User: What shape does this take?
Amino acid sequence: MAAAIAYFDAYPLAALAVGLAALVGTAVVAHWITIQVLLRAISRGLSRAGLTQVSETLRPVSVRLARIVPALILYQGVQAVPHLPSAVVLLTRNVAAAFMILTLVMAITAALTLVNTVYSRRPEAASRPIKGYIQVVKIALFALGAILILSALIDRSPLLLLSGLGAMAAILMLVFKDTILSLVASVQLTSNDMLRVGDWIEMPELNADGDVIDIALHTVKVQNWDKTITTIPTWKLISESFKNWRGMEESGGRRIMRALLIDQASVRFVEPADRDRMRRFALIDDYLTRKQDELDAWNGNRVPSNGDEVNARRITNIGTFRAYVVAYLKAHPGINPDMTQMVRQLAPTPQGLPLEIYGFTATTSWIAYEGIQSDIFDHLIAILPEFGLQLYQQPSGLDLARLGAVVPMDRATA
Assistant: This one.
């Protein structure tokens, strides 16, 4: 031992090299023991206790914390290396301290990500997400970590750096303007329950029309129906209007509001023969009887027996068809009976008389809704001629050709 000491005293560079090798080797071995022995032992203990999922979930955090061990050994052991210049010792300690701070910040952020992941599995996570708040805490941690790392590297008190930040407040407000706006927007969206993951929203100004798939601090991601993804700044959802279809989905019914354009030239009074023929429709048999009794009573009191029919009230084919549509909607199993049902005439247009069907389906599923709506209008369009009515349709070239107004192409080129 005395000979070795005498040798190292005679050759300081050798002592320095051996000291550095011993320090680095100790740090490497300590890190290996922490990862391969200590963490594995903890993981096995949790697995035997039936907490395997907990062990796997905590692994990213524990691996980051394990990196502090070799840095701590370098921080404390570099002073024991012989013949090492004091400037190198100070630099090594500062870098090791900065690394430990960075590692600790990364471990805390990993733990916050783990908290958000666990919370997102809860039922209330869709209506009250915490991802935005987690991101705000991460930003604050990274800002604090940056100040502490810088102070460790330059070997100055962090309070000295913080005192200089007051003069940079205006610049920081400008740099973090979007972050501040997004934070306020996130609080308002969450506290007022204006937006949830899974909501169908429309925002035409930003070409967004689909389901919300992610709500973060700065952005909200919407997967459109064409499977594209629109990214919306969070503060835009507060400063501008958007439509949320959640109310429709929670109501249990989806609105049908579509009009049939009736050719007004086909509207006429119903003759007795027509009325007898229409009694074949079970849905309006009672209506025809009730309506005829009502009109007979009205006409009997106001129209003389030998008076002109023009002074009498009579049943019209469009009124009878409207009563048929009302009865048809009430009897349809796909229409929600507890919601508004209405068949009304709108103001006449050059394209015909709009007869609007208004109601709600008994389902909010898009495919089922379109199927119910199509079935209803398929039936109404097909049965319309039974009431002596016609739909308005602009004439096509074939219609004009049938009237002889257009010369067929083969004759024109002959």
